[in-house]
Write a structure and sequence with these properties.
This protein is mainly alpha-helical. 77% of the residues lie in helices and 0% in strands. It is globular. The N and C termini lie far apart (69 Å).
């Protein structure tokens, strides 16, 4: 893809994204969806027999509606119970993830990778295997965090479609099941079930509260750029000449050096 075509595609993508967000906001206003469990559940209940399909669609386009997955997935448990919320919520997450993965691949893997820092290429290649798929499953099932970023990152790797679908399915239904368990426990009055779901969510957040963990994550994010700068610095410096091993003191005081060598 030529640079000019890439610029055009980027502008087209931005226009499509803005149009989709505008359409999502209009749809949210017409449906009367607000940032609350009661509001989203009322919309789902009003769909009648189409509620499962409608709920799946809401989960799939939740980003355009500016609704967090945690809120919508909890509504799944409230409206359909633990099992139903897990199935329909997980399916909605999976449809959203597959769409993002497909768009990245449709843009062209190599074309997109040329816009990614070269320091990240090795990491992307390594993430295309089973270890990367396992990481995708864990990250997607993690109670907090943006799922869309993980799906797009998977699209940048050379992960096979079958491997991606397996990992994404495990992760999407894992996250949906956790929040459906919480919502289902609320509507069914099961205190132990609610406490268990909240306990899992709380335990998953504990590592992020530790300073060393946050420092480690920051180091992982900064490492590719530091390695790239390090390589560029070595590439820019030529091989040492005959005077390459001369000490700093000798370079600063050539006269003194000459005096020591004089007979």
């Amino acid at each position: 893809m030529t640079p000019r075509n890439w610029v055009r595609l980027r502008w087209l993508g931005a226009a499509v994204l803005l149009a989709a967000i505008a359409a999502g906001l209009v749809l949210r206003a017409r449906l009367g969806i607000e940032w609350s469990l009661e509001s989203v559940r009322a919309v789902v209940d009003d769909l009648g027999i189409w509620a499962p399909i409608g709920f799946t669609g809401i989960v799939a386009v939740r980003s355009l509606l500016l609704l967090p997955s945690q809120l919508v997935l909890t509504v799944g448990g409230l409206a359909f119970g633990t099992a139903g919320g897990t199935v329909w919520g997980g399916l909605g997450l999976l449809l959203n993830g597959v769409a993002i993965f497909a768009v990245v691949r449709w843009l062209g893997l190599e074309s997109v990778r040329t816009r990614v820092p070269k320091a990240l290429h090795r990491a992307l290649d390594a993430a295309g295997g089973r270890a990367g798929a396992a990481g995708l499953a864990v990250a997607t099932s993690y109670p907090v965090g943006p799922i869309a970023i993980y799906q797009a990152a998977a699209g940048l790797t050379r992960m096979s479609v079958a491997l991606y679908l397996m990992a994404a399915t495990l992760g999407c239904f894992g996250r949906a099941g956790l929040y459906a368990t919480f919502g289902g426990g609320l509507v069914e009055g099961r205190t132990i079930q609610v406490a268990a779901a909240l306990g899992v969510i709380a335990i998953s957040l504990i590592p992020l509260a530790h300073p060393r963990v946050r420092a480690r994550l920051a180091a992982l994010l900064e490492r590719p750029g530091a390695e790239a700068a390090h390589r560029e610095g070595h590439a820019g410096s030529g091989p040492a000449g005959p005077e390459g091993d001369v000490s700093a003191g000798e370079r600063r005081h050539p006269i003194q050096q000459g005096d020591r060598n004089a007979p």
